[in-house]
Write a structure and sequence with these properties.
Length: 190
Amino acid sequence: MRKSKQEAARTRQRIVKTAAAEFRRKGISETGLSELMAAAGLTHGGFYRHFDSKDQLVAEACAAAVDPEVGSLLAACSHKAKGNPLEAIAADYLSTKHRDDPSGGCPFAALGSELARGDDHTRAAATAGILKLVDSLAERLEKTKPEAAKKRVLAALSLMLGALTLSRIVMDPKLSVDILRQAKKHVADL
């Protein structure tokens, strides 16, 4: 029996959501289509009913992973509305909880180097996601001119992405925490 268009759309969304988490958890190149589809509760054979290629799924998964990250950072900013918004964002982003949960966290920190080597569609989706993140966060810097706010957010985001990535790389737990702590201090100074 054929699925309705609505059922097919829900299945496609389930695959994209699963892929977004699996890619962040294991990496794009280390995530095979068979295991990805199994994680979504589907068989490998159904993949090509929904996507032309793995690259198409990577681009869509990247785009889908950005919205929750933007929402999380904006929520962190809203909960700590008084004071420096960048400091509130950094406190959430540069936490050990975020460090320890790549599958549920920032797609750029988890997949940055792989996204940089992606095809044009993947890089376009990543670029759109970065711009969305920058614009959304810059709007929170209400007392700053828009162009200056974007520059501050770009600097803060670059520092936070790098620090989160380094904190995941190092094997020394104390060094990992220190990387996060020092980055938070510098973001607050922006």
